[in-house]
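Entry 12.
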Amino acid sequence: MVGAHADIGPETGSLKRLKSIARAAVPLGGFLSARARDRKFPLAVTLCLTNRCNFRCVYCHMPGTKRDELTTDEWLSAIDQFKAGGMIRCSLMGGEPLLRRDAGAIISYLVKNQVHSAMNTNGWLVEDKLDDVAKLDLVCIGLDGPQAIHDQQRQRKGSFARAVRAIELLVGRGVEVVTMSPVTAASIDHVDSMLKMASDMGFRAGFQVEHDADCDVRNPIGPGLTDHRLSELANYLLARKNEGAPLAMSRTFLEEFRTQGRRMLKSCRECLVPRHSCMVRPDGMVVPCFLTQHQGPMLSGHDLGYLRAFHDLTQPGDAGCSSQPLMEMHSILALRPKAVLNALRLS
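Predicted 3D structure (tokens):
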């Protein structure tokens, strides 16, 4: 019985992915048509439900940015508008999104509307809200390194244990889990421990070079890390990917990370993400992505309507970033084969 139960998670996760691909077929055709005509299309949308957080991570100042928050009905209206415009995927984030009392209602609404749904969370509240979180297609949990490093960087004793427990519970429910590990001067030597955990526990591991705590892409990326250390990391991760390690990062991203020799992998001007994605801040302002939320451009979805705000947004003109999730999305939108296959879990 133990062995039979252990197989439920992966099978359920695969079934969820197949259903997700099937229900995306029609709107995906709309995206491909829009892309061929160089028109905007809201393929993937991120809803930042709140800036509030129960952690004070050393590399993040978001909890200090106070903003008004949309009501439940306003969030559901935003989902309706983006869905009508062709949205296939919606990610929920914060702050810590599970601090919203209506997080479960928002998740249920996405599921009801057959939108591929994901969430970024620190994991602290997952066990308390497991029935809601387990409805998601994918959950990304922050995991900084071994316990001592994780708890220190997250500035919350016991946060590592809670994150690990959240992973165990979600994998047991058949939810696809990925982790995101900020690469800092303190954590860069502990990549292997994260990969071992991923292999042992059944999740995929992602790594992100530390960005500015205020999300300003004009500020240095990877402070305290030399170019040589980052080059070593890129080579090592690519080698492990080729060996079959459970890395969430595509070979496309890792090869660019290795060969570009720079911290800005894409400029904002050339990035495809703002053409087919956006983020809604807690106050209803629509911005191209998470890393452009302070310096603009931005428009009020509450005043203009969320779909119109997305279409009216201009392309950002900042220096760029090396955000792994955003760079992966850019490569997928560019229809680069290795990135697409990685997103489909076929590579």
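Annotation: The domain at 2-343 is CATH 3.20.20.70 (TIM Barrel). Confidence is low (pLDDT under 50) at residues 1-11.
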